[in-house]
Amino acid sequence: MTSTLPPSNSTRATRVIRGRILHFLRDPQFHDDGYEYWEDGALVVTDGRIAAAGNYATLAPTLPADAELIDHRGKLIVPGFIDTHIHYPQTDIIASPSPGLLHWLDTYTFPEERRFSEPSYARAVADFFTDELLRNGTTSALVWSTVHATSADALFAASEARNLRMITGKVMMDRNCPDFLRDTAETGARDSADLLSRWHNKGRLAYAITPRFAPTSSEAQLAACGELARAHPDAFIQTHVAENRDEVKWVAELFPDARSYLDVYDRYGLLRPGAFYGHAIYLDPDDRRRLADSGAAVAHCPTSNLFLGSGFYDFHQSDAHRLNVTLATDVGGGTSFSMFRTMNAAHKVARMGGYHLTALRMFYLATRAAAEAMGWADRIGSFDVGCEADFIVLDPDATPLIARRSSRSETLEEQLFAFAMLGDDRVIEDVYVMGKAVGEREGESVGKAVDKAPDNAPDNAPDNAGAREYGLSAMS
Ligand code: GUN
Ligand code: ZN
Protein backbone atom coordinates (compact mmCIF):
# COMPACT_ATOMS: atom_id res chain seq x y z
CA MET A 1 0.00 0.00 0.00
CA THR A 2 1.17 3.50 -0.76
CA SER A 3 0.12 6.07 1.77
CA THR A 4 -0.37 9.48 0.26
CA LEU A 5 -2.16 12.80 0.47
CA PRO A 6 -4.18 14.04 -2.51
CA PRO A 7 -2.10 15.65 -5.31
CA SER A 8 -0.91 19.03 -4.18
CA ASN A 9 -1.04 22.35 -6.03
CA SER A 10 0.66 23.92 -3.08
CA THR A 11 3.51 26.36 -3.53
CA ARG A 12 4.92 25.33 -0.15
CA ALA A 13 8.29 23.67 -0.32
CA THR A 14 7.97 19.97 -1.03
CA ARG A 15 10.91 17.62 -0.90
CA VAL A 16 10.99 14.16 -2.37
CA ILE A 17 13.59 11.80 -0.93
CA ARG A 18 14.18 8.78 -3.12
CA GLY A 19 15.75 5.60 -1.76
CA ARG A 20 14.94 2.24 -0.17
CA ILE A 21 12.26 3.16 2.34
CA LEU A 22 11.48 1.06 5.41
CA HIS A 23 9.23 1.76 8.36
CA PHE A 24 7.11 -0.20 10.81
CA LEU A 25 3.39 -0.28 11.42
CA ARG A 26 3.37 -2.71 14.35
CA ASP A 27 5.61 -5.27 16.04
CA PRO A 28 6.97 -7.64 13.34
CA GLN A 29 7.44 -10.29 16.03
CA PHE A 30 3.68 -10.70 16.25
CA HIS A 31 2.46 -9.43 12.87
CA ASP A 32 3.51 -10.59 9.42
CA ASP A 33 2.40 -7.23 8.03
CA GLY A 34 4.38 -5.29 10.61
CA TYR A 35 6.33 -3.17 8.14
CA GLU A 36 6.28 -1.46 4.77
CA TYR A 37 9.28 -1.53 2.46
CA TRP A 38 9.68 0.08 -0.92
CA GLU A 39 12.88 -0.82 -2.73
CA ASP A 40 12.59 2.14 -5.09
CA GLY A 41 10.62 4.29 -2.72
CA ALA A 42 10.06 7.91 -1.90
CA LEU A 43 9.26 10.07 1.07
CA VAL A 44 7.36 13.22 0.28
CA VAL A 45 8.01 15.90 2.88
CA THR A 46 6.05 19.12 3.10
CA ASP A 47 6.74 21.70 5.79
CA GLY A 48 8.89 19.23 7.68
CA ARG A 49 6.23 16.51 7.84
CA ILE A 50 5.59 13.31 5.95
CA ALA A 51 3.02 13.99 3.23
CA ALA A 52 3.39 10.57 1.62
CA ALA A 53 5.55 7.45 1.62
CA GLY A 54 5.45 4.79 -1.03
CA ASN A 55 6.70 3.51 -4.31
CA TYR A 56 8.55 6.21 -6.25
CA ALA A 57 6.87 5.42 -9.54
CA THR A 58 3.43 5.61 -7.93
CA LEU A 59 4.12 8.89 -6.17
CA ALA A 60 5.99 10.70 -8.94
CA PRO A 61 2.88 11.75 -10.91
CA THR A 62 1.28 13.24 -7.80
CA LEU A 63 4.09 15.64 -6.99
CA PRO A 64 4.01 19.41 -7.41
CA ALA A 65 6.08 20.67 -10.35
CA ASP A 66 8.46 22.57 -8.12
CA ALA A 67 9.22 19.66 -5.77
CA GLU A 68 12.90 19.26 -4.94
CA LEU A 69 14.19 15.74 -5.55
CA ILE A 70 16.91 14.36 -3.29
CA ASP A 71 18.39 11.15 -4.61
CA HIS A 72 19.53 8.56 -2.06
CA ARG A 73 18.97 5.56 -4.35
CA GLY A 74 20.77 2.46 -3.09
CA LYS A 75 20.67 3.69 0.52
CA LEU A 76 18.22 2.52 3.14
CA ILE A 77 16.05 5.24 4.70
CA VAL A 78 14.44 4.55 8.07
CA PRO A 79 12.92 6.75 10.78
CA GLY A 80 15.48 8.33 13.11
CA PHE A 81 16.40 6.15 16.06
CA ILE A 82 14.86 6.79 19.47
CA ASP A 83 16.99 6.05 22.54
CA THR A 84 14.74 5.66 25.59
CA HIS A 85 17.37 5.84 28.35
CA ILE A 86 20.62 7.81 28.19
CA HIS A 87 22.48 9.97 30.73
CA TYR A 88 23.95 13.05 29.04
CA PRO A 89 26.06 14.01 32.10
CA GLN A 90 27.85 10.67 31.80
CA THR A 91 29.14 11.40 28.30
CA ASP A 92 32.68 12.07 29.50
CA ILE A 93 32.92 9.09 31.84
CA ILE A 94 31.79 6.50 29.31
CA ALA A 95 34.08 3.44 29.38
CA SER A 96 35.25 3.86 32.98
CA PRO A 97 36.60 0.60 34.42
CA SER A 98 34.68 -0.69 37.43
CA PRO A 99 33.65 -3.94 39.11
CA GLY A 100 29.95 -3.04 39.06
CA LEU A 101 27.08 -0.58 39.33
CA LEU A 102 27.34 0.74 42.88
CA HIS A 103 31.14 1.17 42.72
CA TRP A 104 30.81 2.79 39.30
CA LEU A 105 28.25 5.29 40.61
CA ASP A 106 30.42 6.27 43.58
CA THR A 107 33.74 6.38 41.79
CA TYR A 108 32.95 7.98 38.45
CA THR A 109 29.35 9.01 38.07
CA PHE A 110 28.65 11.11 41.12
CA PRO A 111 31.89 13.16 40.97
CA GLU A 112 31.25 13.92 37.28
CA GLU A 113 27.59 14.80 37.83
CA ARG A 114 28.69 17.32 40.45
CA ARG A 115 30.19 19.47 37.69
CA PHE A 116 26.76 20.11 36.16
CA SER A 117 25.90 22.69 38.80
CA GLU A 118 27.91 25.02 36.52
CA PRO A 119 25.57 26.08 33.64
CA SER A 120 28.35 26.72 31.12
CA TYR A 121 29.86 23.29 31.76
CA ALA A 122 26.45 21.65 31.40
CA ARG A 123 25.72 23.49 28.14
CA ALA A 124 29.07 22.53 26.61
CA VAL A 125 28.46 18.84 27.36
CA ALA A 126 24.81 19.11 26.21
CA ASP A 127 25.97 20.54 22.87
CA PHE A 128 28.50 17.76 22.34
CA PHE A 129 25.97 15.15 23.48
CA THR A 130 23.18 16.20 21.11
CA ASP A 131 25.63 16.37 18.20
CA GLU A 132 26.92 12.90 19.08
CA LEU A 133 23.36 11.52 19.19
CA LEU A 134 22.72 12.94 15.72
CA ARG A 135 26.02 11.61 14.37
CA ASN A 136 24.75 8.18 15.42
CA GLY A 137 21.36 8.62 13.80
CA THR A 138 19.44 9.14 17.05
CA THR A 139 16.98 11.96 16.53
CA SER A 140 14.97 11.64 19.76
CA ALA A 141 15.82 10.45 23.25
CA LEU A 142 14.57 10.19 26.80
CA VAL A 143 17.56 11.76 28.52
CA TRP A 144 18.72 11.95 32.11
CA SER A 145 20.10 15.23 33.45
CA THR A 146 21.62 15.60 36.95
CA VAL A 147 20.04 16.75 40.19
CA HIS A 148 20.74 20.36 39.14
CA ALA A 149 17.83 22.14 37.45
CA THR A 150 20.35 24.01 35.31
CA SER A 151 21.53 20.73 33.80
CA ALA A 152 18.03 20.08 32.44
CA ASP A 153 17.87 23.68 31.19
CA ALA A 154 21.11 23.08 29.28
CA LEU A 155 19.88 19.90 27.57
CA PHE A 156 16.54 21.50 26.68
CA ALA A 157 18.32 24.55 25.23
CA ALA A 158 20.75 22.42 23.19
CA SER A 159 17.82 20.35 21.86
CA GLU A 160 15.76 23.42 21.05
CA ALA A 161 18.68 24.92 19.13
CA ARG A 162 18.73 21.78 16.94
CA ASN A 163 14.93 21.54 16.71
CA LEU A 164 14.98 18.02 18.21
CA ARG A 165 12.08 16.16 19.78
CA MET A 166 13.63 15.41 23.17
CA ILE A 167 12.65 14.65 26.74
CA THR A 168 14.61 15.17 29.92
CA GLY A 169 14.16 15.83 33.60
CA LYS A 170 16.20 16.79 36.61
CA VAL A 171 17.21 13.82 38.77
CA MET A 172 15.51 13.62 42.15
CA MET A 173 17.54 12.05 44.97
CA ASP A 174 17.42 12.96 48.63
CA ARG A 175 19.30 10.13 50.37
CA ASN A 176 22.12 7.60 50.01
CA CYS A 177 24.09 9.94 47.80
CA PRO A 178 26.81 12.55 48.30
CA ASP A 179 25.68 15.83 49.90
CA PHE A 180 26.74 17.72 46.79
CA LEU A 181 24.08 15.89 44.74
CA ARG A 182 21.30 15.75 47.28
CA ASP A 183 17.98 17.56 46.97
CA THR A 184 15.05 17.23 49.38
CA ALA A 185 11.52 16.03 48.86
CA GLU A 186 10.43 19.69 48.78
CA THR A 187 13.18 21.24 46.63
CA GLY A 188 13.18 18.28 44.25
CA ALA A 189 9.44 18.61 43.66
CA ARG A 190 9.58 22.40 43.41
CA ASP A 191 12.47 22.44 40.91
CA SER A 192 10.83 19.69 38.84
CA ALA A 193 7.51 21.54 38.76
CA ASP A 194 9.27 24.73 37.72
CA LEU A 195 11.16 23.01 34.88
CA LEU A 196 7.97 21.27 33.81
CA SER A 197 6.10 24.57 33.61
CA ARG A 198 8.86 26.10 31.49
CA TRP A 199 9.70 23.24 29.09
CA HIS A 200 6.96 20.60 28.95
CA ASN A 201 5.29 20.63 25.50
CA LYS A 202 7.36 23.65 24.48
CA GLY A 203 7.84 23.05 20.75
CA ARG A 204 9.26 19.54 20.41
CA LEU A 205 10.32 19.23 24.05
CA ALA A 206 8.76 17.41 26.98
CA TYR A 207 9.49 16.82 30.64
CA ALA A 208 10.15 13.58 32.53
CA ILE A 209 9.74 13.23 36.29
CA THR A 210 13.04 11.56 37.17
CA PRO A 211 13.57 9.86 40.55
CA ARG A 212 17.03 8.24 40.15
CA PHE A 213 16.08 4.90 41.70
CA ALA A 214 14.31 3.75 44.84
CA PRO A 215 17.49 3.58 47.01
CA THR A 216 18.21 7.29 46.56
CA SER A 217 14.70 8.59 47.25
CA SER A 218 12.97 8.75 50.62
CA GLU A 219 9.34 7.72 50.91
CA ALA A 220 8.54 11.45 51.11
CA GLN A 221 10.31 12.09 47.82
CA LEU A 222 8.59 9.18 46.06
CA ALA A 223 5.27 10.49 47.33
CA ALA A 224 6.15 13.92 45.92
CA CYS A 225 6.96 12.30 42.56
CA GLY A 226 3.57 10.59 42.62
CA GLU A 227 1.83 13.88 43.36
CA LEU A 228 3.64 15.60 40.53
CA ALA A 229 2.70 12.75 38.21
CA ARG A 230 -0.95 13.00 39.19
CA ALA A 231 -0.94 16.75 38.64
CA HIS A 232 0.62 16.29 35.16
CA PRO A 233 -0.94 13.21 33.58
CA ASP A 234 0.90 13.72 30.28
CA ALA A 235 4.36 14.17 31.82
CA PHE A 236 6.86 11.37 31.27
CA ILE A 237 8.38 9.39 34.13
CA GLN A 238 11.76 7.67 34.09
CA THR A 239 13.71 5.68 36.63
CA HIS A 240 15.77 2.50 37.11
CA VAL A 241 14.42 -0.82 38.35
CA ALA A 242 15.85 -4.27 39.12
CA GLU A 243 19.14 -3.74 37.33
CA ASN A 244 21.46 -5.61 39.64
CA ARG A 245 21.17 -8.29 42.34
CA ASP A 246 22.85 -6.21 45.08
CA GLU A 247 20.59 -3.28 44.28
CA VAL A 248 17.49 -5.49 44.48
CA LYS A 249 18.58 -6.75 47.93
CA TRP A 250 19.21 -3.19 49.08
CA VAL A 251 15.73 -2.10 47.99
CA ALA A 252 14.19 -5.03 49.89
CA GLU A 253 15.96 -3.77 53.04
CA LEU A 254 15.00 -0.15 52.49
CA PHE A 255 11.34 -0.90 51.70
CA PRO A 256 10.44 -3.96 53.77
CA ASP A 257 6.70 -3.49 53.19
CA ALA A 258 6.91 -3.51 49.41
CA ARG A 259 6.10 -6.76 47.60
CA SER A 260 8.93 -6.18 45.14
CA TYR A 261 11.25 -3.49 43.80
CA LEU A 262 8.72 -2.56 41.10
CA ASP A 263 6.00 -2.43 43.72
CA VAL A 264 7.83 0.45 45.46
CA TYR A 265 7.14 2.62 42.42
CA ASP A 266 3.63 1.25 41.99
CA ARG A 267 2.69 2.28 45.51
CA TYR A 268 3.44 5.88 44.59
CA GLY A 269 1.48 5.93 41.34
CA LEU A 270 4.51 5.84 39.09
CA LEU A 271 3.40 3.01 36.80
CA ARG A 272 1.46 4.33 33.83
CA PRO A 273 1.75 4.97 30.08
CA GLY A 274 4.71 7.27 29.45
CA ALA A 275 6.71 5.80 32.37
CA PHE A 276 10.00 4.19 31.32
CA TYR A 277 11.73 1.66 33.55
CA GLY A 278 15.43 1.18 32.83
CA HIS A 279 16.79 -2.41 32.86
CA ALA A 280 13.93 -4.44 34.45
CA ILE A 281 16.05 -7.60 34.63
CA TYR A 282 15.07 -9.09 38.00
CA LEU A 283 11.27 -9.13 37.80
CA ASP A 284 8.83 -11.84 38.82
CA PRO A 285 5.61 -12.79 37.00
CA ASP A 286 3.49 -10.44 39.12
CA ASP A 287 5.82 -7.55 38.27
CA ARG A 288 5.59 -8.31 34.57
CA ARG A 289 1.82 -8.57 34.69
CA ARG A 290 1.62 -5.28 36.51
CA LEU A 291 4.04 -3.58 34.09
CA ALA A 292 2.00 -4.80 31.12
CA ASP A 293 -1.35 -3.78 32.64
CA SER A 294 -0.09 -0.33 33.58
CA GLY A 295 1.06 0.55 30.06
CA ALA A 296 4.52 1.50 31.33
CA ALA A 297 7.54 0.62 29.20
CA VAL A 298 10.89 -1.07 29.68
CA ALA A 299 14.09 0.55 28.45
CA HIS A 300 16.33 -2.42 27.73
CA CYS A 301 19.99 -1.37 27.97
CA PRO A 302 22.09 -4.32 26.78
CA THR A 303 25.54 -2.74 26.44
CA SER A 304 25.20 -1.38 29.97
CA ASN A 305 23.96 -4.69 31.37
CA LEU A 306 26.96 -6.47 29.88
CA PHE A 307 29.50 -3.78 30.80
CA LEU A 308 28.39 -3.57 34.44
CA GLY A 309 27.78 -7.33 34.64
CA SER A 310 24.20 -6.64 35.69
CA GLY A 311 22.44 -9.56 33.99
CA PHE A 312 20.46 -10.64 30.94
CA TYR A 313 17.07 -9.21 30.01
CA ASP A 314 14.56 -12.06 29.59
CA PHE A 315 12.93 -11.70 26.15
CA HIS A 316 10.87 -14.88 26.52
CA GLN A 317 9.18 -13.57 29.65
CA SER A 318 8.96 -10.09 28.22
CA ASP A 319 7.09 -11.34 25.15
CA ALA A 320 4.95 -13.73 27.16
CA HIS A 321 3.62 -10.68 29.02
CA ARG A 322 3.68 -8.47 25.92
CA LEU A 323 5.77 -5.86 27.71
CA ASN A 324 6.33 -2.55 25.94
CA VAL A 325 10.03 -3.11 25.50
CA THR A 326 12.25 -0.48 23.86
CA LEU A 327 15.99 -0.20 23.22
CA ALA A 328 18.35 2.16 24.99
CA THR A 329 22.08 2.86 25.25
CA ASP A 330 22.26 3.93 28.93
CA VAL A 331 25.44 5.90 28.23
CA GLY A 332 27.68 6.10 30.31
CA GLY A 333 26.94 2.68 31.92
CA GLY A 334 26.33 1.74 28.31
CA THR A 335 29.40 1.72 26.13
CA SER A 336 28.17 3.29 22.90
CA PHE A 337 25.92 6.02 21.53
CA SER A 338 25.21 3.79 18.55
CA MET A 339 21.84 2.04 18.32
CA PHE A 340 23.53 -0.47 16.00
CA ARG A 341 25.99 -1.43 18.73
CA THR A 342 23.02 -1.57 21.08
CA MET A 343 21.21 -3.93 18.70
CA ASN A 344 24.33 -6.05 18.45
CA ALA A 345 24.40 -6.46 22.23
CA ALA A 346 20.62 -6.95 22.46
CA HIS A 347 20.80 -9.79 19.99
CA LYS A 348 23.57 -11.52 21.97
CA VAL A 349 21.84 -10.98 25.33
CA ALA A 350 18.69 -12.53 23.85
CA ARG A 351 20.77 -15.42 22.46
CA MET A 352 22.10 -16.15 25.94
CA GLY A 353 18.47 -16.75 26.95
CA GLY A 354 17.81 -18.98 23.95
CA TYR A 355 15.78 -16.27 22.20
CA HIS A 356 16.25 -15.18 18.59
CA LEU A 357 15.85 -11.41 18.36
CA THR A 358 15.49 -10.55 14.67
CA ALA A 359 16.93 -7.47 13.06
CA LEU A 360 13.46 -6.44 11.86
CA ARG A 361 12.30 -6.51 15.48
CA MET A 362 15.32 -4.53 16.64
CA PHE A 363 14.75 -1.80 14.05
CA TYR A 364 11.11 -1.71 15.15
CA LEU A 365 12.15 -1.45 18.81
CA ALA A 366 14.53 1.40 18.00
CA THR A 367 11.88 3.38 16.12
CA ARG A 368 8.14 2.83 16.30
CA ALA A 369 8.06 0.82 19.55
CA ALA A 370 9.68 3.72 21.40
CA ALA A 371 7.34 6.24 19.77
CA GLU A 372 4.31 4.12 20.73
CA ALA A 373 5.52 3.80 24.31
CA MET A 374 5.94 7.57 24.44
CA GLY A 375 2.43 8.13 23.10
CA TRP A 376 4.04 9.88 20.16
CA ALA A 377 3.34 7.43 17.33
CA ASP A 378 1.52 10.25 15.52
CA ARG A 379 4.70 12.36 15.65
CA ILE A 380 7.85 10.27 15.32
CA GLY A 381 9.10 6.73 14.77
CA SER A 382 7.45 6.01 11.38
CA PHE A 383 6.59 7.47 8.01
CA ASP A 384 2.87 7.66 8.70
CA VAL A 385 1.34 10.69 7.00
CA GLY A 386 1.60 13.73 9.26
CA CYS A 387 4.60 12.50 11.23
CA GLU A 388 7.55 14.81 11.72
CA ALA A 389 10.14 13.99 9.06
CA ASP A 390 13.03 12.80 11.23
CA PHE A 391 14.83 10.10 9.28
CA ILE A 392 18.26 8.67 8.58
CA VAL A 393 20.06 7.43 5.51
CA LEU A 394 22.02 4.19 5.98
CA ASP A 395 24.85 3.22 3.65
CA PRO A 396 25.09 -0.53 2.93
CA ASP A 397 28.59 0.11 1.56
CA ALA A 398 29.79 2.10 4.58
CA THR A 399 32.92 0.00 5.09
CA PRO A 400 34.62 -2.59 2.89
CA LEU A 401 33.39 -5.43 5.11
CA ILE A 402 29.82 -4.13 5.38
CA ALA A 403 29.77 -3.68 1.59
CA ARG A 404 30.84 -7.29 1.05
CA ARG A 405 28.25 -8.58 3.51
CA SER A 406 25.54 -6.33 2.05
CA SER A 407 26.24 -7.64 -1.44
CA ARG A 408 25.50 -11.16 -0.18
CA SER A 409 22.27 -10.16 1.59
CA GLU A 410 19.35 -11.93 -0.01
CA THR A 411 16.60 -10.73 2.29
CA LEU A 412 15.70 -7.53 4.05
CA GLU A 413 16.33 -9.32 7.35
CA GLU A 414 19.86 -10.21 6.26
CA GLN A 415 20.64 -6.63 5.25
CA LEU A 416 19.28 -5.22 8.51
CA PHE A 417 21.13 -7.89 10.47
CA ALA A 418 24.40 -6.90 8.79
CA PHE A 419 23.79 -3.29 9.87
CA ALA A 420 22.93 -4.43 13.40
CA MET A 421 25.96 -6.69 13.84
CA LEU A 422 28.59 -4.70 11.93
CA GLY A 423 27.27 -1.16 12.01
CA ASP A 424 28.03 1.96 14.00
CA ASP A 425 28.20 5.69 13.24
CA ARG A 426 29.99 4.97 9.95
CA VAL A 427 26.76 3.60 8.51
CA ILE A 428 24.88 6.87 9.09
CA GLU A 429 25.27 8.78 5.84
CA ASP A 430 22.75 11.54 6.46
CA VAL A 431 20.40 12.60 9.23
CA TYR A 432 17.26 14.65 8.59
CA VAL A 433 15.39 16.54 11.28
CA MET A 434 11.95 17.88 10.33
CA GLY A 435 12.85 17.27 6.69
CA LYS A 436 16.17 19.11 6.72
CA ALA A 437 19.57 17.47 6.63
CA VAL A 438 21.59 18.18 9.74
CA GLY A 439 24.16 20.82 8.86
CA GLU A 440 22.20 21.92 5.82
CA ARG A 441 22.04 25.65 5.43
CA GLU A 442 19.22 27.61 3.82
CA GLY A 443 19.30 27.16 0.03
CA GLU A 444 21.91 24.39 0.13
CA SER A 445 21.50 21.08 -1.70
CA VAL A 446 21.83 17.70 -0.01
CA GLY A 447 22.19 14.13 -1.20
CA LYS A 448 22.38 13.99 -4.95
CA ALA A 449 19.91 16.83 -5.30
CA VAL A 450 18.27 17.23 -8.69
CA ASP A 451 16.95 20.69 -9.49
CA LYS A 452 14.11 19.81 -11.76
CA ALA A 453 10.86 18.19 -10.76
CA PRO A 454 10.97 14.40 -10.70
CA ASP A 455 10.44 12.51 -13.88
CA ASN A 456 6.84 11.31 -13.74
CA ALA A 457 7.43 8.28 -15.90
CA PRO A 458 7.10 5.18 -13.77
CA ASP A 459 10.06 2.86 -13.86
CA ASN A 460 10.16 -0.88 -13.42
CA ALA A 461 10.31 -1.06 -9.67
CA PRO A 462 7.55 -3.18 -8.16
CA ASP A 463 5.68 -2.01 -5.10
CA ASN A 464 6.91 -4.37 -2.41
CA ALA A 465 5.18 -3.06 0.65
CA GLY A 466 4.89 -5.74 3.27
CA ALA A 467 7.12 -8.17 1.43
CA ARG A 468 8.22 -10.57 4.12
CA GLU A 469 11.45 -11.69 2.52
CA TYR A 470 12.97 -9.50 -0.10
CA GLY A 471 15.93 -9.86 -2.41
CA LEU A 472 18.06 -6.80 -1.84
CA SER A 473 21.16 -7.89 -3.71
CA ALA A 474 19.29 -7.38 -6.98
CA MET A 475 18.96 -3.66 -6.49
CA SER A 476 22.33 -2.17 -5.64
N1 GUN B 1 21.03 3.27 38.92
C1 GUN B 1 20.98 4.47 39.53
N2 GUN B 1 21.65 5.40 38.85
C2 GUN B 1 22.14 4.80 37.77
C3 GUN B 1 22.92 5.25 36.67
O1 GUN B 1 23.31 6.41 36.56
N3 GUN B 1 23.23 4.31 35.73
C4 GUN B 1 22.79 3.02 35.82
N4 GUN B 1 23.12 2.17 34.85
N5 GUN B 1 22.08 2.58 36.84
C5 GUN B 1 21.75 3.46 37.81
ZN1 ZN C 1 20.59 4.63 33.57
TrEMBL record:
The organism's place on the tree of life at top rank: Bacteria
Composition-biased stretches (Low complexity): 455-465
Keywords per UniProt: Hydrolase, Metal-binding, Zinc
This enzyme's EC code(s): 3.5.4.3
A GO BP annotation: guanine catabolic process
Cofactor entry: Zn(2+)
Reaction equations catalysed: guanine + H2O + H(+) = xanthine + NH4(+)
Family, per entry: Belongs to the metallo-dependent hydrolases superfamily. ATZ/TRZ family.
PANTHER family registered for this protein in UniProt: GUANINE DEAMINASE
The protein's name: Guanine deaminase
Originating organism: Cupriavidus plantarum
